[in-house]
Design a protein that fits this description.
Two copies of one chain form a homodimer. Chain A is an alpha/beta fold and about 250 residues long. Helix content of chain A is about 25%, strand content about 30%. The radius of gyration of chain A is 19 Å and the shape is globular. Chain A starts with 5 loop residues before the first strand and ends in a 5-residue tail after the last helix.
Chain lengths: ~250, ~250
């Protein structure tokens, strides 16, 4: 039996995305790597799972390296579920998701397929990290992230994570970031625009687009850190209970 | 201008589901109702949004009543976004989602399209409630929920909700529930089973199924309340920061 940690790698941009290829290469230096990732891009899938449809999960080899790879027809959360229940012989020591092409800071954590995979692993009691780079380009420079990703990953493997907590790591676009900041999720939202168009047969349809607005002036947020060229690390929990409001709610006339 | 509150109604089972039809009828007694709901079932969609595809949003009238109705081709979160940005003239006073056919207690809040709609409204600063009944049947008895739904809704309209908090309301299957309990989200997970099959052309595929496991012995959880025939009300937040772990994380060597 290998003494190296068993690491599950997934993402939401699809198994051929440069971000996950880099993450696989990095993880191969740390442990035994099994990849179960979507066969097509799944950005914005949030924590969707495939209930009323079938799934495929097929072994393949996308490129060189010691990893074992599977592509799955489902969402990132599906990938983690099928990896744990069907693909892997034992519970992995770590799940890493990404490197996402684009930000998952602030409220984007909620829409993020990358983070849903990490959260799904967390629900199963597996330490998990989502990595994202604030660069949507397919040719983004992932190489400069290697040292920090190794350091964060080794810290998680050595220290573990508390039950119910996973990490959301975002890298600024600059290759010369200043260091790492532990942050809270910034308060923000998307000012959506729906671009209305008319189809050739006269039917109205829309494209969703929008602009992210940071509503948070705090200097302890992920947005602040990223704007100031720090790597942001937000501990994320999936107990969504607003504990602070329970006492007040008990005074309501219900 | 109407003095009645403007209420946005949506769900994840689709605009023709009996659960939303009942919720529309109830809300018509409280305010001016606009429905923007998916044109097809969207269960398990989590907080998915439609990024790389188009959306339609068409006015229709499913049945009698004073409501205005639109069916949308997108996810529950898409429905709330397009309602706010395109359909409604002003910010609604309330958003209600459901009544879901099935439970959204415990960790199901994360996979839930019903709750993603409520959370999306919450992100936009709109007080929001998701209602679910622990009965998957299309012919579930929603009538017995009316009194409680009216009471909870009126409480939210009168008292408001703190910024960043929405309510997750689940009803036990029994029509004779004992009352309302304010709860925290129970710790639990799904023990998935992947039912492997072979297609007529020899290809392997899977159906995801599974059994929910409650890992929480607490008597202040939603699962406990529902098992003891209480209506569970969990205040839900979408700041996912695990604030309790920030200090410890600051001691890591990052």
């Amino acid at each position: 039996m290998s003494l190296r940690p068993l690491i599950l790698v997934t993402n939401d941009d699809g198994i051929t995305a440069p971000g996950i290829r880099k993450l696989i290469a990095i993880m191969n230096t740390i442990g035994d790597v099994v990849v179960v990732a979507p066969d097509s891009p799944q950005s914005g899938m949030g924590h969707a799972i495939t209930i009323d449809s079938t799934l495929t999960c097929d072994k393949l080899k996308v490129d060189v390296g010691s990893q074992t790879e599977y592509k799955c027809s489902g969402t990132p959360a599906d990938c983690v579920k099928i990896a744990i229940r069907e693909v892997l012989d034992r519970k992995p020591d770590l799940c890493v998701s990404g490197i996402n092409h684009g930000s998952n800071s602030s409220v984007n954590v909620i829409y993020s397929g990358t983070m849903s995979a990490a959260i799904e692993a967390g629900i199963e009691g597996i330490p998990a990290i989502g990595f994202s780079l604030l660069d949507y380009s397919w040719r983004a420079n992932f190489d400069v992230l290697e040292k920090e990703i190794v350091k964060i990953t080794k810290n998680v493997l050595e220290n573990g994570l508390p039950e119910g907590v996973v990490l959301n790591v975002n890298f600024p676009k600059t290759p010369t970031f200043k260091g790492v900041k532990i942050c809270r999720q910034a308060r923000g939202n998307w000012e959506e625009k729906f671009d209305k168009r008319i189809s050739p047969n006269g039917k109205e349809y829309y494209w969703l687009s929008g602009k992210f607005t940071n509503l948070d002036k705090g200097e302890d947020t992920d947005i602040w850190a990223l704007e100031h060229n720090y790597v942001s690390v937000v501990p994320v929990q999936f107990d969504l209970t607003a504990h602070h409001f329970i006492q007040k709610l008990n005074n309501w006339d219900l």
